[in-house]
Design brief:
Layout lengths: L1 H42 L2 H9 L8 E2 L2 H7 L12 E2 H12 L4 E11 L4 E4 L4 H5 L1 E12 L3 E10 L2 E7 L2 E2 L2 E5 L9 E9 L4 E8 L5 E9 L6 E8 L5 E21 L3 E25 L5 E6 L8 E18 L5 E12 L7 E11 L1
Helix pairs in contact: 1-2
Length: 362
């Protein structure tokens, strides 16, 4: 019993130690970042900028939306539009213009970890994203040609700085906004697809983490019994020829559809093929003259339909647009789609398709 307790306690201590180490590392990332910016402004050495950029080089493309980013964006161009947020490169380029002139100083102080119990969320956030993000408040003071002093909020996602935002409070809670920087697109889903010529169909979707890309495997089954006929005549001479007749039944299509995916919508174009099978009938026609001088047409081989099977594959494309509607949470979505089946060389089976399904965020 004592041994079991020892093992159990060891597991708890290791888990707590790992969690604390991750928090300490995130704090170090913020400390190093603000130190690099301060030294960059005071020394004009670009190496500090590169070091700061590396601290933000994570799976999320870092953005900045604090008040200082808006002030410095308008410094050289007062008519520049105010954006909701700026990419890190734009933010640093604006700082660099002032740093190279040696007219500003940047100082940070009072770095503190913000407990998640202190937060108020603007918009929805998944448990996974919240679990992977740490928050730190910090005071920035800019002197020289620009005078600015305020608190900022650092978002550290997977131990990389992903966002620097304004420190705002609402009802004693610190407001955090994930919508403009968390692009965790990973998810799976399926949909039932209907088209006039392919009434039974479906799509299996997978969206990739940290990339606005979705891939789906699609199929559709034809049930109408229409036949596709190929009647080919090969002339040997003016009176002798071979005839091949294929009677094919469209069965199903398969396609793969890459899509540009942005959380609430997706646009793409699939490529695939329509499978048809059936029978091939052949006959050989020749003109012959009898010994009595009369002429006749001889058919050799005749028609055969039992053993000569035939297969034909037609290429196709499937442009599609999808919308994803949240169902009470930020992890489950209703998916609706509209597309078009376009089969090369068989326009009779072209037509609009519609889809309805579900998409889960992983």
């Amino acid at each position: 019993m004592t041994r079991i307790k020892t093992i159990f306690c060891s597991i708890i201590l290791v888990t707590m130690g790992t969690h604390l180490s991750a928090q300490e590392y995130a704090m170090t990332q913020v400390s190093q970042f603000v130190n690099c910016l301060s030294k960059w402004a005071s020394t004009q050495c670009a190496e500090y900028r590169f070091q700061a950029e590396e601290l933000c080089n994570g799976t999320k493309k870092a953005i900045v939306c604090d008040e200082f980013s808006h002030i410095i964006n308008k410094k050289d161009n007062p008519n520049a539009p105010r954006q909701k947020s700026y990419e890190l490169e734009t933010y640093f380029n604006n700082i660099e213009k002032q740093v190279n002139k040696g007219i500003i100083n940047i100082a940070y102080s009072n770095i503190k970890k913000v407990s998640k119990s202190e937060l108020a969320f603007s918009g929805n956030i998944s448990d996974k994203d919240l679990r992977l993000t740490e928050f730190y408040s910090c005071k920035i003071k800019v002197t020289g040609d620009i005078q600015h002093e305020a608190y900022e909020l650092f978002y550290v996602y997977k131990n990389k700085i992903a966002k620097i935002g304004a420190y705002e409070k609402k009802k004693e809670k610190i407001v955090v906004d994930f919508d403009d920087f968390l692009n965790n697109y990973e998810g799976i889903g399926f949909s039932y697809n209907y088209g006039k010529h392919f009434p039974i169909g479906g799509s299996l979707n997978y969206s990739f983490e940290d990339a606005p890309f979705m891939l789906s495997a699609d199929f559709g089954v034809n049930l109408d019994g229409d036949k596709y006929i190929i009647d080919k005549v090969e002339m040997k001479d003016i009176v002798n020829y071979d005839r091949t007749k294929k009677t094919l039944d469209p069965k199903f299509f398969l396609a793969v559809t890459p899509q540009f995916y942005m959380r609430y919508f997706a646009l793409g174009c699939g490529v695939g093929f329509l499978w048809m099978d059936g029978n091939e009938d052949t006959a050989n026609y020749s003109y012959a003259t009898s010994s009595t001088g009369s002429s006749s047409v001889t058919v050799s081989g005749g028609y055969t339909t039992d053993d000569n099977s035939a297969i034909l594959i037609k290429p196709m494309i499937r442009p599609v647009a999808k919308a994803f509607i949240p169902l009470g949470s930020n992890d489950l979505f209703l998916s609706v789609s509209v597309g078009y089946d376009m089969i090369f060389g068989y326009k009779e089976k072209n037509g609009i398709n519609f889809g309805l399904g579900l998409q889960w965020k992983l």
